[in-house]
Amino acid sequence: MKAKTILITGAGSGIGRDAAFALAARGHRVIATTADEAQAEAMRVESERRGQRLQVRKLDITDPADRESLRDEPLDVLINNAGVGESGSLAEVDVERIRQTFEVNLFSTLALSQVALAGMIARRSGTVLFVSSIAGRVPMPFLMPYSMSKFALSAGAAGLRAELDRLRCGVQVALIEPGAIHTGFNQRMTERKYAWMQQSSYFAGQVERLRSEETRVFRLLEARSTDGIVAKIVRAAEAGRPRLRYVSPWWQGMGVQLARIFGV
After folding, report:
1. Whole-prediction pTM value?
2. What are phi and psi of 180, to 5 degrees?
3. In angstroms, rounded to a whole number, what is the distance separating the alpha carbons of residues 170 and 13?
4. Which 3 state secondary structure label does DSSP give 102?
5. Distances, alpha carbon 51 to alpha carbons 16, 48, 90, 101, 238, in Å
6. How many other CB atoms are there within 10 angstroms of residue 150's CB atom?
């Protein structure tokens, strides 16, 4: 297998971090990027400890200058993994919180992809992977600020794939759709709404019940390891013609399909 130059965003923790090391272990040149220098330095230290060579750099995808710095980087694969989570009822959540979620998860992700695509289309090869979510396929009450951004990202990636197929330029697009996986991301996201859900909230009387339900659901559903979704990322990054969607855990993906059949 030919080694590829692969850039992954949001590589400072969780799925992104584990995918970066897994790809490097397979001989790829991995550019692992993080939102700030502190995370980048932690990744450098971990890379040294493991004896794995990663090229680590700070890349804030919301910063136009950071995005533009990749203009001349000959990437074989871009993995759009950076993202943020926001929660709360759409009946009352501050729209600015939703707007910021879309800024990171959709707009800045697309802007970075356009920079990478310019070179890929010119070279007539390359792959862009968008890390979306199962939450981007079925509505998730109290998680809709995040879920809506992933709905939009999933739709955009599918449309972009069809557009590039019409160009016949050899550039591939695929979606990575993680289910509930225990990285701490879900807990941080669901907890964010309680910072502003005071007594004036429509759901003030349900806060303890909501917290209890969230804890129970995540304890039941979350996969305890990122291994499954990392394997899907590796497969998609190395494929000549990746599938449109890669889902893990598989049984959560099956649950989404059943939910759609029953009109959810």
Report:
1. 0.95
2. -75, 115
3. 31
4. helix
5. 18, 5, 46, 35, 23
6. 26
Q: Three-state DSSP class for 79?
A: strand
The H or E element that residue 256 is part of is: helix 250-261
- Helix (H) or strand (E) segment spanning residue 232: helix 227-238
Helix axes 109-123, 144-167, angle to 10 degrees: 20
User: Which residues are CB-neighbours of 66 under 8 A, at least 6 positions away?
Assistant: 58, 59, 60
Question: Do 39 and 12 contact (CB within 8 A), yes or no?
Answer: yes
Burial, 182: exposed, middle or buried (Cβ in 10 Å; 0-12, 13-18, 19+)?
middle
Distance of CA 159 to the CA centre of its chain: 18
Tens-place pLDDT, residues 131-189? 999 999 988 999 999 999 999 999 999 999 999 999 999 999 999 999 999 999 999 99
Joined tokens for residue 219 = 């304890």
239-261: pLDDT as tens digits: 999 999 999 988 887 877 777 77
β 55-58/5-8 pair status: unpaired
Bond from prior residue into 74 cis (ω within 30 degrees of 0): no
Averaged pLDDT, 41-56: 94
Q: What is the pLDDT of residue 259?
A: 72
Strands 171-178 and 245-248: parallel
Backbone angles phi, psi at 225, to 5 degrees: -140, 150
